[in-house]
Amino acid sequence: MYAPDSGYGAQQSMVGFTVEAADGVIGHVDRHQDQPGMQHLVVDTGVRKFGRSVLIPSGSVTSIDTEAQKVEVAPSREEIKSAPRFTTDSETADPGYPSQVGDYYLSLRT
Question: What is the DSSP string of 11-77?
Answer without folding.
Answer: T---TT-EEEETTEEEEEEEEEEEETTEEEEEEE-SSGGG--EEEEEGGGEEEEETTTTEEEESS-H
